Amino acid sequence: MTTIVLADDHDFIRRGVRVLLEGEPAFTVVGEAGDGLEATDIVESLKPDVLIIDVVMPGLNGLEVIRRAVQNSPGTRSVVLSMYDNEAYVLEALWAGARAYVLKRSPSEELVRAIREAVAGGYYLDPPLYGRAVEAYMHMAKESRLDPYETLTARESEVLHLAAEGFTSTEIAARLSISPRTAENHRASGMRRLGLRTQTDLIRYALRRGIIPPD
């Protein structure tokens, strides 16, 4: 039996996916999460075979959740289920450790195929994404360099994500159970690593990297 955790900030999406998966005798949904921080905790606790997650999540974006799943639950295969179809999101998801990327507008059979392929140890891209993703990967491979984002600590990633969403240091501190001073220190050090100076710089960077949605 393939155990699955669903992570999406829209309850109706989770309900729909659960109904779909419950129709597959080999799948069982063992947990659900409405934000990235909750998803990280559930995956670390339950260590499911598969994590189905949106790339854009409140609290902690899906890409960071996937990175942590790779570290804390290496047996979990991550499948992205998203409305966003641009190449940057797809490549970032694969680099983070995702095994599959499926569009929410695609037929339900695509998600089932993606899960099976991921569980088997392979990779799966929704057909509309495949050609563009390969072209983008080839282009970016030619310009490969050390990504400053990869140097961020887990706490810096959390703080910058929340800061990009508009939370103050006091609000971030309350959310993460740290002091406002510590939150501000993590924000400042993370900004330095990324070469950012202002809140506007952070928001533009977060939009470009898919940390927060474009709308």
If you had to describe this structure to a student in words, what would you say it looks like?
The protein is α/β, with parallel strands linked by helices. It folds into 2 domains: 2-141, Rossmann fold (3-Layer(aba) Sandwich), CATH 3.40.50.2300; 148-209, Arc Repressor Mutant, subunit A (Orthogonal Bundle). It contains 10 helices and 6 strands, in the order E-H-E-H-E-H-E-H-E-H-E-H-H-H-H-H. Helix 7 packs across helix 10. The mean pLDDT is 88.
Alpha-carbon distance between the termini?
38 Å
Which percent range describes the beta-strand content?
Answer: 5-15%
User: Strand order within the widest sheet?
Assistant: 2-1-3-4-5-6
Number of domains: 2
Mean pLDDT: 88
Layout of strands and helices, then pairs:
Layout: E1 2-7, H1 11-22, E2 27-33, H2 36-46, E3 50-53, H3 62-72, E4 77-82, H4 87-96, E5 100-103, H5 108-119, E6 124-125, H6 127-141, H7 154-164, H8 169-176, H9 180-194, H10 199-209
Parallel strand pairs: 1-2, 1-3, 3-4, 4-5, 5-6
Tags for this entry?
215 residues; alpha/beta; Rossmann fold; Arc Repressor Mutant, subunit A; six-stranded parallel beta sheet; 10 helices; 6 strands
In short:
The protein has 215 residues and is an alpha/beta fold. It has helices at 11-22, 36-46, 62-72, 87-96, 108-119, 127-141, 154-164, 169-176, 180-194, 199-209, and strands spanning 2-7, 27-33, 50-53, 77-82, 100-103, 124-125.
